[in-house]
Design goal:
Blueprint (H helix, E strand, L loop, with lengths): L9 H7 L42 H14 L2 E5 L2 H10 L7 E5 L4 H11 L5 E5 L4 H7 L7 E5 L11 H11 L2 E5 L17 E5 L13 E5 L2 H14 L5 H11 L2 H21 L4 E4 L9 H7 L6 E5 L3 H10 L4 E2 L9 E4 L12 E5 L5 H14 L1
Parallel strand pairs: 2-3, 2-4, 4-5, 5-6, 10-11
Antiparallel strand pairs: 1-7, 6-7, 8-9, 9-12, 11-12
Helix pairs in contact: 2-8, 3-4, 5-6, 9-12, 11-12
This protein binds pyridoxal-5'-phosphate (PLP).
């Protein structure tokens, strides 16, 4: 599916994914097109692939989708947000009465979607912890499910599960396998190559990485699944705006550079956290001591820039944040700023008040680590 040569590295792929062959006189990088309707001629709308109406076909979102699809190894459809992409993945392909298996410890709003919308519509939702899904699949416990959704590494605990092992089971039982690949990004993990049917991204996070837009996507190598998802998106109107799709495409060019700096900082941050007496429960899948280490380093292509850990309680978190200058309190992750998210602040996830998710930005590693050390010492 991808037109990118196999030998190109991630830096080249980030910049060149989705590029059309050069045409003299056309822009090096496509500019955003803001039209909602397009000129129609005498022929039926969309004849010969002509654009007709932006909700259903649009050159700017198509450029973003071509690029992301090439990185994912499939055909990509963009959505207004990550949740719109997850909603489409489930609702376009799962029906009332079907069994849907979701991670018990994945992104909280996916579970809210299930509890408040999917169950209401008669979808039978079951929750399995990320670390238990591969065993459940091997035991045959997932047999009969219409779809299994994985989120690996999971947000916020950073547990990892074996995509290829679950894919073997879902292929055998006839279930669809969808992977929320948000934390890893298409450069960090390729769920389609590991056997998944669908890979989903909240591109609001590291893929676009500047904390200034909402965007999501789904990629699949199946034309049938692609068509079903496109029908869902066109009918429900979950398409992204042209400016966001353009900004997302533009931001992707630096994905390799940003991930590299974030990972370098995350490695240093994980060590500082692990060595500090005020901190417990450090999780970063690339620490050899981490329970996910063996699987993460085998399955994934590069480390993530997110680390989780715990301070004693909420008061300790407040002291940490008051002392930090670079570690800014904000939700989301994967952006150019180093941020800290207090999950307990949001309710929902059963995490202790001192639990923190550190999202390493692209500031100088030494500055961010010095700021972390000073703020921890103030705790
Ligand atoms: C793993 C994961 N999936 C999906 C989402 C939803 O993305 P969005 O906020 O763009 O709807 C998030 C957002 O935090 C996430 O962390």
């Amino acid at each position: 599916m991808s037109r990118l040569p196999d030998g190109w590295g991630d830096g080249t792929r980030s910049v060149r994914a989705g590029e059309a062959p050069p045409v003299p006189g056309t822009p090096l990088r496509p500019s955003p097109v803001f039209a909602a309707p397009f000129h129609l001629g005498d022929r039926p709308p969309r004849a010969d692939g002509a654009d007709a109406y932006a909700r259903t076909e649009h050159p700017t979102s198509r450029a973003f989708e071509t690029a992301v699809g090439e990185l994912d190894g499939g055909r990509c459809l963009s959505f207004a947000t990550g949740m719109a992409a997850i909603t489409a993945t489930v609702m376009a392909l799962v029906s009332a009465g079907d069994r849907l298996v979701l991670p018990a410890d994945g992104y909280y709003t996916t579970r809210l979607l299930a509890r408040d919308e999917l169950e209401r519509l008669g979808i039978r939702v079951e929750y399995v912890p990320t670390t238990g899904i591969a065993d459940a699949a091997a035991r045959g416990d997932l047999d009969g499910a219409r779809m299994v959704v994985l989120e690996t590494p999971s947000n916020p605990q950073l547990d990892v599960c074996d995509v290829a092992a679950v894919a073997r089971a879902t292929r055998a039982s006839g279930a669809l396998l969808a992977v929320d690949n948000t934390t890893a990004t298409p450069l960090g993990q390729r769920p389609l190559a590991l056997g998944a049917d669908l890979t989903v991204g909240a591109d609001t996070k590291a893929l676009t990485g500047h904390s200034d837009l909402l965007l999501g996507h789904v990629s699949t190598a199946s034309d049938e699944l692609y068509d079903r998802l496109k029908g869902w998106r066109d009918h429900t109107g979950a398409t992204p705006g042209a400016f966001d799709a353009w900004l997302g495409h533009r931001s992707m060019s630096t994905l390799d550079l940003r991930l590299a700096r974030q990972a370098e900082t995350a490695a240093a941050v994980a060590e500082v956290l692990a060595a500090h007496p005020a901190v417990t429960g450090v999780r970063w899948p690339w620490r050899p001591e981490d329970p996910s280490y063996a699987l993460a380093t085998r399955q994934m292509l590069r480390p993530v820039g997110v680390v989780s850990a715990g301070l004693a309680d909420e008061a300790a978190v407040s002291r940490f944040l008051a002392a930090a200058r670079l570690w800014t309190a904000a939700t989301s992750f994967g952006g150019v700023h180093s941020t800290v998210d207090r999950r307990a602040q949001w309710g929902g996830d059963a995490v202790p008040g001192g639990f923190l998710r550190f999202s390493c930005g692209i500031e100088d590693t030494a500055d961010v680590v010095a700021d972390l050390t000073a703020a921890l010492d103030a705790v």
